Amino acid sequence: MDCCFSCLGEKKKKKKKKKKPQMVKPPLEKPQIPPAAEKAKPGGSSSSRQESLEPKEEMVLSNGAAQIFTFRELAAATNNFSADCLLGEGGFGRVYKGYLDSVSQVVAIKQLDRNGLQGNREFLVEVLMLSLLHHPNLVNLIGYCADGDQRLLVYEYMPLGSLEDHLHDPSPDKTRLDWNTRMTIAAGAAKGLEHLHDKTNPPVIYRDLKCSNILLGEGYHPKLSDFGLAKLGPVGDKTHVSTRVMGTYGYCAPEYAMTGQLTLKSDVYSYGVVLLEIITGRRAIDVTRAAGEQNLVAWISPPSSEVA
Ligand SMILES: Nc1ncnc2c1ncn2[C@@H]1O[C@H](COP(=O)(O)OP(=O)(O)OP(=O)(O)O)[C@@H](O)[C@H]1O
Ligand SMILES: [Mg+2]
After folding, report:
1. DSSP E strands: which ranges in 104-232?
2. For the chain, which ranges sit under pLDDT 50?
3. How many CA atoms lie less than 13 Å away from 184 in the CB half-sphere?
4. What are the chain's domains?
5. Which of 62, 77, 211, 286 has its CA 20 to 30 A from that of 164?
6. What is the per-residue pLDDT for 238?
7. 18 appears as a binding residue in the annotation
């Protein structure tokens, strides 16, 4: 199956404490439901190590691992979505901390902003993907709510927030990440990506690897989050999938941005950008810096005259 759902328009980036630079996500592409023949796995890639992805929407929404919650339950868990429970806000909507009695667990609840630019498709892809993908370095989706026009996602709560918070928005109560911790986070994120690329069949292209999507648990254990843009990768002798360019400015591989041809390597490029941020402590894009230093990759790349 080809999961070619995507988000809508530009993402508005608002954080509880500090606004981040606006990220760019292009307009909605229509979901493509491929013919049944394309759902087969050519090339006989049926390694027992691989997690098979044959998501059927009806099956996942009714029988998948994700639980279904009512809006009332989630409102009760977050004190009616009170500002005190707000953890942050991204393109999808606001994220609240809450406690769910039914699962006796602290959770993070992401509420789709109905006036926002991203929507139902990302919600659906997120539920489908995370119901099927399970790994210690991928965030755990506990469930969702699709009451009326409400769309909410319920995740395990990641107590240390995002890597971006630690690298770029350090508050006085946060200690600076030491080198070993940085490398542990980089290695864990790579394992999550490896699972998507090499252990899942067909492979999954994540398309949204960035510091704000690497969430941190106890001991700075990293987990990749936000699979709303994920797409099933090429199968058989195909080298890429063609799709509208989506992702976040600063993390998007140039060849994908130029051609719309998405490969697993597009994620590897984004991973490289994250690694540069981890090593340098600089943002991928920082418009407050001097001209020539605003784009981290351009700043760090040797001048073309020095490239053999
Ligand atoms: N499971 C979680 N546990 C704890 N905090 C979370 C969790 N999920 C999200 N957050 C917090 O909410 C913030 C907003 O997350 P969200 O994914 O909505 O936006 P983003 O990653 O900043 O941007 P984008 O929409 O582009 O992914 C994160 O930066 C993080 O601080
Ligand atoms: Mg995110």
Report:
1. 105-112, 141-145, 152-156, 200-201, 204-205, 214-216, 222-224, 231-232
2. 1-49, 54-63
3. 13
4. 54-156 (3.30.200.20), 163-306 (1.10.510.10)
5. 77
6. 86
7. no
